[in-house]
Amino acid sequence: MNFLPYILVAEQPGPIDTGDGFWFVPPASEYAATHDSIYEFVLWLSVFFFVLIVGIMVKFAWDYRRKSNKDAPGFGPTHSLVLETTWTVIPLLLSGVLFFIGVDTYADFKSPPANCYEVDATAQKWAWQFDHRNGASDSMVLKVPVGKPTRVTLHSNDVLHSFFIPAFRVKQDVVPGRYGSLWFTPEKPGIYQGFCTEYCGTGHSKMNFWVEAIPEEEFDAVIAKDARWIDDYSGDRLVWAGARLFSRCASCHSLKPGERMTGPSMWDLHANWGKTKKIEIDGKIKDVKIDENYVLESIVAPWEKIAPTYMNQMPANFGKQLSAKELDALVRFVRQLDLVTDENGKIKTEPPPSVTN
């Protein structure tokens, strides 16, 4: 089993249909068709009246220009009730039509059906975490069923983020201290891009994710398997489970020697394994041994021991999102980093289970 596409944050799990649309990527949800129709209506209505009004202005400017000094302006009508009523009533009616179209569409967008598939999405600097109700969890890949409404409950662990899937035409700000939600119904299987569209710090541009729309008849089996994925790993193979889990860490931690990101390089930790390093504890610099206990404590209580020159920015509840086996897998991953990465800091392709590590 090869989980490599889910490990590398910058790599999508499959091909994406970018299409040849002029304004947007091809629509892939029920709501997208309504959104695009309204957009086209407003656009061409605006173009029509822009051309009409500017055309009339140009014609009047030309027809009534002063041709010589003898063409002094005379007295004309001061007003026209018919004309003034016309240019007041028509825009009023059009504004009313646009208002009611917008209200109806917004009400539908904010009223998910009762039979929605439920997913929880947690945003934090700088990654997304998607949790399904059966216990399946993934970072950077949101799996949803085709043809069934999906409701995503949104929550932020730190700052303001924004959840956006262009192909589905859905976008919602994710505000810390509040829960938000949106829903959509994917129309066809495929891989779609998602983004954070609210600037949230230095790693904002990397806070992307993928949406995998799976045929409904296959979806339950896929999600059930995802909920048990770590059961396929034990013993020496746990290091590869850690490699998969590292996708949740890659937006803040590098696998390259000396590369500085929001947090320390994992390779630098690995290279100093068993050695004593200067670490800040309770505001004082102390000697700490880099080993399994240090890595584990840095995950479950990241505020306790801060690497010098770094700020305490790791989410305090990150360790609570992982089981004991997953924590063990991440510790093994850091300890055996040279086994699972190449000289460029890239995670190697996972060997099949029959291969002895």
Plain-language structure description:
This protein has 357 residues and is α+β, with helices and mostly antiparallel strands. It has 2 domains: 1-64 and 112-227, Immunoglobulin-like, CATH 2.60.40; 232-340, Cytochrome c-like domain (Cytochrome Bc1 Complex, Chain D, domain 2, Orthogonal Bundle). The protein has 9 helices and 13 strands. Strands 3-2-1-5-8 form a 5-stranded mixed sheet. A 5-stranded mixed sheet has the order 4-10-9-6-7. α5 (238-245) packs across α8 (324-335) and α7 crosses α8.
Low-confidence stretches: 1-11
Order of helices and strands: HHHEEEEEEEEEEHHHEEHEHH
Number of beta-strand segments: 13
The fraction of residues assigned to DSSP E strands is 15-25%
Main-sheet strand order equals 3-2-1-5-8
Report the average pLDDT across residues: 83
Distance between the terminal alpha carbons, to the nearest Å?
A: 15 Å
Query: By helix and strand content, what is the structural category?
Result: alpha+beta
Global shape? elongated
* Name of the CATH homologous superfamily of the largest domain: Cupredoxins -  blue copper proteins
**In the CATH hierarchy, what is the architecture of the largest domain at level 2?**
Sandwich
Number of separate helices: 9
Biggest sheet descriptor: 5 strands, mixed
Rg on CA atoms, Å: 28 Å
Using the coordinates above, name the CATH class of the largest domain.
Answer: Mainly Beta
